[in-house]
Every structure is written in C-alpha cells, then in structure tokens.
Amino acid sequence: MKKRNITEFQILSEIVRKQPHVKQKEIADALDITIQAVSEHMRNLLKKGYIKSRGRGEYIITDKGMRVLKNWISEFKRYLDDVTQDLYKYKDVWPAIANEDLNEGDEVYLFMRKGLLYASKEIKTDAKGKVLEGGKKGEDVAICDIKGIIDVPRGKVTIIKIPPRIKGGSKNTNYELIKKVLEENEDVAIATMGTVANVVASKMGLHPDIRFAVSEGIVAACNRGCDVLALITGKMTEKVVRVLDKHKIGYTVLDATKED
C-alpha cells in the first residue's frame, strides 16, 4: 500500500467514525498532518467518488468508498499477518557457527565451544535443531526447531602468574611453561592483566580475548562454558583469585617466573 493510500485509508476511517460532522482540523490532529494536507486528500476522495459532501463541513462515505475501505482493511490485515508470522518465526531462530558445511533442512546437533554455539551433523549431543539457512564451515547459520538441553559445563581457569617488572618482567618469564599449557588446552580463551602480561602475550603471538574488566570477563567466559588461560602480572593474581572464589569457579595457579 502506497503512503498516499495509507493516508486516504486513515481519513476514510476517520470519516466513518465521525460522519456526518467531520472537521478537517480534528482529522489533521488525529493523524498528525496539516489541515492543508487533509484538504488535499479530501478533494481527491471526492473526485474518486469515495465520499460526498453535504455542505457545511458534512461528509459521508459512499458505497464505493466503503468497498474500497473494506479492501484496504483486508489488505492491511494480510500485511499484519505476514509481519506477525515473521516475528514468531524469527523469535525461535538462533544463530550458530557451522562446524562443517551445512544446508537448509539439515538435522544438526548443538554444542558450545569457546563460549559460542556450534551446529554439527557429526558431533552428537543431547540438543538438536534444524538448519533454516545454511552456510560453509565457520560461517554463521540459522537454526530453528531446537529440542533438548544444550550442555554448558562451567569453564575452569588456569592462571599463569607473570613476574612483574621488579622481578625481571617478560625477560624472566618461563615461556616453555606457557607453551605447554597452551598445547594441553587448545580451545581456551586468553586473558591478560597488566602491562608485562600483555608484553608476554605479544611476544608469543597471542591475541587476548579478554583485556579489560578482566576478572568479570573471565567469570562471564566460564559461565558460557569456556576455559580460560589467564596471564596475570604479579600481585594482580590475588584480585582475580578472590573474584573466582566468590563465584565458585575452579582454577589452578602456576608461577611462570624462571628459577635461578
């Protein structure tokens, strides 16, 4: 329906509600348009034969106008039904990452990895869904008809205490220890706290997932099922540990200071 038709539909509706005594100012106020605009539309409606004037500001809708109004109402109802259907449709659609190439209609299993939802035909879990819109491996896909419970085990934290500048900083860090932990935990999120810890991460070619509001970020990641490797500088470790204890999140602390 064109914008002009919508305005005429509204004016016809106002005439039906208030006929025969219809004031153009009342219509203008109700529709939040100018009186000049109402006057122009009224002339157009008279010309089309949808309304007729009795003089002295009295207008009534004609049989032709009533038929057109009913058609517009039906058209508008169909439009609203389509929009409502789309709203409910997308209410039950969830984005996920394709673990392999997926096509529309594929039955998939759902699981969490590194805090993100994945869909796979191969990795079986208790949660299932159907692909509404497919994609290549690594792309976002749309999942609907989700059934079952998506298992989200709470993540755990490995804290590696990085020596502060006063104790040698990055030059006195045991990089082999960090590499070993990374090899044993491939899907961890990386958190860094403190200048020296960020330098260590940079030297190792790591790109931290969490750099700001670190303690809160680690908790959020763990609650989404993500394990975290946290490189924390010196005594900052104590602050992070207190937060983890408060939220009852499991952790291990390793000291990466080189032995003399």
UniProtKB/TrEMBL annotation:
This is Regulatory protein Crp. Residues 14-63 form the HTH crp-type domain. One of its GO terms (biological process) is regulation of DNA-templated transcription. InterPro entries: DUF7839, HTH_CRP, UCP_HTH_arc, WH-like_DNA-bd_sf, WH_DNA-bd_sf. It comes from Methanotorris igneus (strain DSM 5666 / JCM 11834 / Kol 5). One of its GO terms (molecular function) is DNA binding. Pfam families: DUF7839, HTH_24. Coiled coil: none annotated. It comes from the Archaea.
